[in-house]
């Protein structure tokens, strides 16, 4: 699967507005996320990494008055994911979105591998 603006709208419903300008901004964030991640290193988690990093980058570049809302979790096939609806907090002067938290969790899986019982 290749991550597109449609992918973000499908996987993160209601989080970003569906306008031409927003789609262009999301496409630019996807391109930047793809530039930052290596598909060979990320393997099967590459598309998810691109999706969450792009969503985080978009949340950083949105106008200050643009609210990020929408779903905060989703479940499929017995797996549940919580992604914070894009809301975030300032930590040490840096903005941390729920999307960044998801991206970092995936990055830990890539670097460390799955936790063993």
Describe the structure.
- The protein has 117 residues and is of the alpha+beta class.
- The chain has one domain (5-112).
- It contains five helices and four strands.
- It has helices at 5-11, 20-36, 39-42, 46-61, 98-112; strands at residues 73-76, 79-82, 88-91, 94-97.
- The strands form two sheets. It has a two-stranded antiparallel ribbon. The protein has a two-stranded antiparallel sheet with strand order 3-4.
- A hairpin with a 2-residue loop joins strand 3 and strand 4 (94-97).
- The radius of gyration is 14 Å and the shape is globular.
- The N and C termini lie far apart (31 Å).
Which properties best describe this structure?
single chain, 50% helix, 4 strands, 117 residues, 14% strand
Helix content: 40-55%
* Number of spatially distinct domains: 1
Task: Tell how many strands the DSSP assignment holds.
Answer: 4
Structural class call reads alpha+beta
Please state how the strands of the largest beta sheet are arranged side by side.
Answer: 1-2
What is the strand content? 5-15%
* Overall residue-averaged pLDDT value: 80
C-alpha termini separation: 31 Å
Compose a concise summary of this entry.
Helices cover 50% and strands 14% of the residues.
Secondary structure elements and pairings:
Layout: H1 5-11, H2 20-36, H3 39-42, H4 46-61, E1 73-76, E2 79-82, E3 88-91, E4 94-97, H5 98-112
Antiparallel strand pairs: 1-2, 3-4
Helix pairs in contact: 2-4, 4-5
